[in-house]
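haha ok so turns out i had the wrong file open the whole time. this is the CORRECT one, sorry everyone. sequence first:
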Amino acid sequence: MKLFKSFYIQPRFFYAGIGIVVLFTVSYFVPLLFNIAQLCILVLLGLFFLDLLIVFIGKQRIEATRIVPDKFSNSDVNGIELSIRNNYPFLIHLEIIDEIPEQFQVRDFKLIDKVNPRKEKTIHYNLTPKERGEYHFGYLNVYASSALKLVAKRFKFEDNVMVPTYPSFKQLKKFELLNINKNAMDYGFKKVRRLGHTMEFEQIKEYVLGDDLRTINWKATAKKNQLMVNQFQDEKSQPVYSIIDKGRIMKMPFDGLSLLDYAINASLVISNIVLKKHDKAGMFSFSKKMENMVVAQRRSGQMQLILEALYNVKTDYFESDFGRLYANIKRHITHRSLLLMYTNFGTLDALNRQLPYLKAIAKYHLLVVIFFKNTEIDKLINNKAETVQQVYDKVIAEKFDFEKRLIVNELKKFGIHSILTTPENLTVDTINKYLEIKSRGLL
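then structure:
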């Protein structure tokens, strides 16, 4: 029974059969070809059984292994390796059908290759996932045939391998270059707004012109008979939270990825940059309530905690409750922090409904509202209108685009920072805004 399950007749056999049928048809008009056609049948059957014998003789003639990464990086190219070993004493032709996860919706995946006798070969292919979650691989099917290619034997390997897809961790190294302080090579003096002193005492030193008179240590001054001051460490470690709106407005797709996944990828990268800049990174998501919270800390395992929390963010279709968000922020975030809020407002009316809560949050924290341009509207605006309908569509598109700019001005009026960006530029624009805030000492 196993023989029949792994036995496949190749297309070449049928093409040869069709040729013989044509030869018999022509022999009706040219009788000389009849004997040749009969001989061709015998030759074809002989080669068929010979091919069957050499392909199916022996066990474990083909060995194959699928090598997958521990986890996929969402929206990035991930490499898969197939290691194939040929134990036949002759060159073998292979058709490889890997049952890749259903999320990719690829129904015609096939790799064609050949492997020399007693040799091993590694075959590479790439997959680009577009959503987080568990990706299950099925069987790795290898169809082996000889040079005759009349018969193929199927070998099955590696059933049910699961690979989790995490937010785009491959972007971390890519964007770390933006962490470079561009002002490090500036010459001369510049005014820097200091954040004040912490309670972290560093040392007692001699007073020099410009030191804060409030830090004079009078006991040390009396002992040394010269002015001595306490020196404290500059306050660097500030809490930075990525707040991800996972309501229905963030389900909008762009280039195969939802706005939510763009926000998640950007949150992972900015958290890494924040930790590199000696600040504390944290995150949480919200819609009807606050979830997936990671308290802002600066410790060795913080990035892994954030990565796991971002992996578990699930989209829902509720209307986001900014009132409850404000209450939760007031309860859980007691220190002044930088809040990077990823959300989306389509119209000025949508903003005005939530503006009282945003103003209340901005009273206690430095709030940056990050929302998205509609790139399809931009395309519509840039296209030349040739009909009345196209003119009408273009005017409506320009109205929506203008409203987005009004939202930026409205937020600015109340001291709320904002980023209006396209999904593909989200990560870069967020990093630039964070570095700008750091350089200006706004937090």
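The two ends are 73 Å apart (CA to CA).
again sry for the mixup
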